[in-house]
Amino acid sequence: MNLFTHFHTQMTILTILLLIFLGIILLLLEFAVIPGITIAGIGGIVLFGYSIYLAFGAYGTAAGIGTLLFIIIVVPILMFKLLKGKIGDKMSLKSTIIGKTNLIEDTRFHAGDKGVTVTRLGPVGKVEFDGQVMEGKSTGPMMDAGTEVEIVKVLKNQIIVKPIKKEEL
Question: pTM score, two decimals?
């Protein structure tokens, strides 16, 4: 084995390892920074494929299968450990949502009750009934604030209303 062959062999091994490393970095970017099917994810998979191709071409079947098994078995475990470990903790959100929707008590509001719009209903907005402001939804046209309305239907978190025509008053 001459010096050039030895150097070429070492460079191929480094190239394969570098491709696998860059593939992992691109997949980490895909999962943590820019989720979805993007260039980073596709690029990571292409780099894995090319590293397998180089291993088969430069070192034969055994090295190619070894590289393939490494990528199929070790890389997912490594990605999981990285994303669930300290690196993943730094990249993930830790806040909790403690809010809840306005649930409407079935006994308080009934079809036929009258109220007034607080905001424009286009078609959703705020409506006031008996001094309590709730989310309302128009059955038809948009309504300006101050429009008198009547409840058509009461849902768990929304009241369906229609405008009261002047002759109904």
Answer: 0.51
- Kindly give the pairing relationship between strand 148-154 and strand 159-163: antiparallel
> For strand 132-138 and strand 148-154, is the pairing parallel, antiparallel, or unpaired?
unpaired
Secondary structure (3-state) at 144: coil
- SS (HEC) of 103-130: CCCCCCCCCCCEEEECCCECCEEEEEEC
Give the tokens for residue 161: 């209303």
Rounded Cα distance between 86 and 2, Å, is 45
Residue identified by tokens 């970095």 is: 25
Tokens for 136? 């309302």
Residue 48 has pLDDT above 70, yes or no: yes
What are the tokens at 30?
């895909």
Q: Where in the chain does DSSP place strands (E)?
A: 114-117, 124-129, 132-138, 148-154, 159-163
Per the listing, tokens 């691109």 go with: 26
Q: What are the pLDDT digits (tens) for 109-165?
A: 778 888 899 998 888 888 888 888 888 888 877 888 888 898 888 887 778 898 887
pLDDT tens string 115-125: 899 998 888 88
